[in-house]
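Our collaborator T.R. sent over the components below with a one-line note: 'Predict the complex.' Nothing else. No constraints on interfaces, no templates requested, no preferences about which chain binds where. So this is a plain run: every listed entity goes in together, and whatever single assembly comes back becomes the starting point for the next discussion.
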Amino acid sequence: MRVVVADDSVLLREGLVRILSDSGLEVVGVAHDASSALATVAATRPDLIVLDVRMPPTFSDEGVQVARELRDTVPSTAVLLLSQHVHIGGALELFENDHGGLGYLLKDRVIEIDGFLDAVRRVAAGGSAIDPIIVQALVTRRDPSRPLDVLTSRELDVLALMAEGLSNAAVAAQLVVSLRTVETHVNNVFLKLDLAPTTEEHRRVRAVVTYLAHRASGP
Amino acid sequence: MTGGRSALAWGMALLSAGLTTIALAVAISDRMGLQEILGGGSGIQALMALTFPVLGALLLTRMPDNRLAWVFSAIGVSRALALFARNWALHDYRGGGTWPSPDEMAFVALAMLFVAPVLVPLTLLWFPDGRLPDGRSRWRLAQGLALVSAAGLLVLLSQAWSSRGLSLVDDSAAPAGLATISLVVILAGTVTGVLAGLMAVVSRLRGQDRVVRQQVKWYLYGALAAFALNVVGDVVPSAGSLNLVGTLAYEAAILVAVRRYALWDIDRILNRTVVYGLLTLTVAAVYSGTVLGLGLLLGELRLGGSLSIAAATLATAVIAGPARRELQTRVNRRFDRRTHDAVRRVAAYGDLVSVTPAAPGELEQLLADVLRDPDLRLLFRCREGDLVDAWGRGVDEPGGRTTSFRTATDELALLMHRPFQQYEQTLFSSVRRAATGAVTLARLQAELLVQVTVVEQSRRRIVEAADAERRRVERDLHDGAQQRLVALAIKLRSEQRRHAPQLGPEAEHIIDLGVSEIRGSVEDLRALAAGLMPGSLVSEGLEPALRELVDRQPDPVECVQQLGHRHSPQIEATAWFVAAEGLANALKHAPGSCVSVEALCDGNRLQISVNDDGPGGAADGPGLTGLQDRVRACGGTLDIDSVQGCGTRLTAVFSCG
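Returned assembly:
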């Protein structure tokens, strides 16, 4: 798999390159800011870009803007955003309109190398990955108009793992239950939250994340 | 030589009055009837002889270069001479020849009778400043008519000398030949001159100062009335008294212009004359009343008993001072209403602001009002030397006409005003004097406002600097320490994997421990940085930053936001701090309670509040005081509503910029 790494911190960039190449992925280019990231992707057409959200020149959300542009211009390249912030901010709308191959992780998630590589492969394969801490924040958010109280605690766990982008099998493995049980929970969640059922994972993530994200900011 | 001219004019007035008095005395002693005196020409002669020279002298005292004054004096004196010579001649014809002979006096009477008609056009052409109106060549022609009339008069007199005698004072005797022609010339010159003069007065109605226009208007009324009534009076034989009425109307109109519109600025002299005249009358009345009263009481039948005189002198001395002040106020109220009212208003305002608070700009408005200058500006000089307006806002040094309010050493204020006319100088100086106290107070207020502005600005700068510093520290934490720690942990992990076969379980454990410590540190740093000033506040605004803040709370918090648009960085940061402080307080003092955050903006004002249903009773602590200062620094208000047992509501309101 061919990967581009874009991060303005040299230390982090090298660490990422090392992890990715150690696990047998081919790092075909690196970038240190928004414009070089776009140029490198255009030149190499990688399967995936690992993209820092906060980069020069303004250190605000250049990564999100690059991702938005790449989704339009090079949809074949999957995007995995890395952020220091728990706050997902403007990246949320990327998920709402997305067709897969998109991830958003906190940087310290990389430290758990296996989990990180899992997410990388999942996103590159057209799936989704959202950091559990972010999902947790979305789920614990309180909103009287769209309560999550209707879900059982097991169903809440399943909802969170779905939002992170895990497949039913992965959810089953995580919760140490059978695949059938997970499928039942998933169906219940969709039924209770009045969401259109779907089996495709990235569509499922999209539905769940959109639901969660819109809970507080209104319909 | 101003004094000399003025003395000459007053001398003429005195002469005129003296001649008139003698003439009237002679007429009365000769049993001339009142009807003859008033209707037959003596009345109008006496009136003009007594009033015109006084008018000329008054005018000359104020404006020594105004040649109109001499015209008035000359008309008056000529009338006095005419009256005197006529009555003298008539007396002599009745009583017998004394020197000078009645024939020559009759000739003088005839000559003097024609001086006024020759000069009258000039009183119109030269009004009010002694100069011709604009477009001088045209008016110079009219002015020349006076010379024609004067030449006609000389011819007439040369013809009349030979036939001097009683017939000259007898109206029925008509001159013949050349004399008739010259009479016609004089009359034609006078009538044409007066008509041209009236046109000159009308021409002055255009393009003048409002007050001058009023003066001219009243003068025009008087002149028209005098002209019309005199013409009718001369033409209709039985309507001779109309001439007198016309002259009275003319003088009344001048009096109106003098009193209401300060014509020739002689109202003050009139004012003083009236005050002292009344004072003299009062004092004389008191004196003679006391002498008479006491004389009767004490049986001193002859007047001038020493005791009565002493008592009368004492009484007069006692009332003189208060009487003068009282008369002055009353006469002022009558004669100079505008100054009187203006000073009273300004003085009343001065009294008012010494006991009640004044609004900035009030004094400026008042002065603009009483001085009738809508563009008037009152500026204050700060102790630092800067010029500010009533609200303490800095202004540039004015270029136009200014008048200064000062103490012995310092300039307090500058008044920028329109140019005041001569006749407005009393008003201006009186108002200025009356306003000094109020100006001093207003300047203190302006200085105070300057200080408040300075303090507000410095407070805002301090808060802005603190915010900038927080942002910088937050960025440093994110891009520096946090990045390095994450990079270090990744490095450890990747080395751990790479060398997994060689590492024993103990080394693996130590590396795991290290990595987990690093992760803990990263979490701590993230929380620390977010507490300083979240990065999303700058890049995405208040709404996401509040969302992030609420999401970070350990307990669920309800969050209602309706913001619509971005606010200034300072207001966003402060609003965020209010929410952060409120949430921290709720967590600390009302654990487990139902907490909500509201951020609402209606386009004009942003309101942010944090509510809990905890125990309430929150008191102002250093945290809330600091927050209050922050909120005030960006022009907002902070309100803490925390009744014991009823929860706490912290509300900040800002106006949208």
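Summary for T.R.: Chain B has 21 helices and nine strands.
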